[in-house]
Amino acid sequence: MTPDLQALANLDRVIHEPARLMIMTILYSVAEADFLYLQRECGLTQGNLSSHLAKLEEAGYVAISKTFKGKYPLTICSLTKNGREAFEGYVRKMQYVAGSTNGGNGANH
Amino acid sequence: MANSPSPVFLAEKRSWSYWFADGLPQLLIGVSAILFGFYFISMMTSASTGLVVLSFVAFGAYLLIQIRAPQILEWLKARITYPRTGYAASPYFATKKSVYCDANLNLTTVQDPNAPAIAEIKRVRRARNLRLSRTYILMALASLGLWFVHAPWICTLTGIVMGIILWMGTRADKSVSLLVILGFPVVGFSVGALQLAPHARVGSFILGVGLLFLLDGLLSLALYLRRNPVASVPVK
Fold it and tell me: What is the side-by-side order of every strand in the sheet holding A72-79?
């Protein structure tokens, strides 16, 4: 396998799934958000979001905590340090792939 | 493709807009400006003892809002916004902080302006902070005319100039509504029409701007509550 293709093979499969990628993208940009905000932003059902969050939590990318803001209970999700680094690594790899594609197109012209 | 904004950038922008969607930050700005304007007017005019005491109370409330703005907003949002549309950390107060969770799920705030490693987010936040700082400074400079030029037309001109500065500084984020931007010249014209002394003009201008933000906040809040009438049941 060439090093170029190796980059694709090494993509983080936990993040690569579209719904989880959405969740990671939102959490990367807002630092922390609750279940309801994520659900509205991603357009996922409760069950779907729960299962994806559980997978991200299992991978150590997302931390979920229950807290109160006033009298309102919140399920707050935030990226862990590992999650942040994994997301940045994933983005770098995807940028590398996108860069390769642009370079290839450029070479054909 | 290279020029289209990335999903990370769009998510960050949406969270910024979300912060202002319920009108509560505008309401708070409005109330604090009204309090400061009232204090300013009463301190600059020969007033009765009762009014002086009242003005000091207003100034105390203004200081309290300035110091405790994040906590006051959090308190209000916890009762109005979070149950309806959810909670997202404020990008307004946390642009220079990163929140991490350690292994025991304790939230740790790290003071690191370079926390997001993706260059686009860093660039967007830096540009926004710079733009807002520049807007505040230019608006403060524009208000100097109210002090030093005695002609009434200066009030309208100041209102127009401040409206333009505010529009230029916030158009990228759309954090200030058109009502406020277009309201600045109206406030300026109204203050000029009152034919006040320069020191009273400044206070009245601040008061007028406060009323403008208050109106904008109330309208935004009414629209928000209309769109999201019932609080959602939180998922446990």
Answer: A32-34, A72-79, A62-69
Domain count, chain B: 1
CA-nearest residue to B119 within chain A is: A88
Q: How far is B94 from chain A (nearest CA, A)?
A: 9
Any domain includes B70: yes
So what's the pLDDT on residue B113? 40
- Does B2 fall in a domain? no
- Which residue did the predictor score with more confidence, B112 or B67? B67
- A36 with B235: Cβ contact below 8 A: yes
Residue range B33-59, pLDDT digits in tens: 999 999 988 877 766 888 888 888 999
Proportion of chain B above pLDDT 70, given as a percent: 81
* Whether residue A84 has pLDDT greater than 60: yes
Asked if A73's CB is within 8 angstroms of B236's CB, the reply is yes
> Is the CATH code 1.10.10.10 the one for domain A3-101?
yes
Mutate to test the interface with A, among B77, B90, B100, B123 (most CBs of A within 10 A): B100
**Where exactly are the structural domains of chain A?**
3-101
**Interacting residues of B204 by C-beta distance below 8 A, sequence separation 6+:** B37, B41, B191, B194, B196
Q: What is the DSSP string of B102-159?
A: -TT--EEEEE-TT---SHHHHHHHHHHHHHHHHHHHHHHHHTHHHHH--STHHHHHHH
Q: ipTM for the complex?
A: 0.77
* B66 found inside a domain: yes
Residue range(s) defining the domain that contains residue B70 = 7-89+116-227
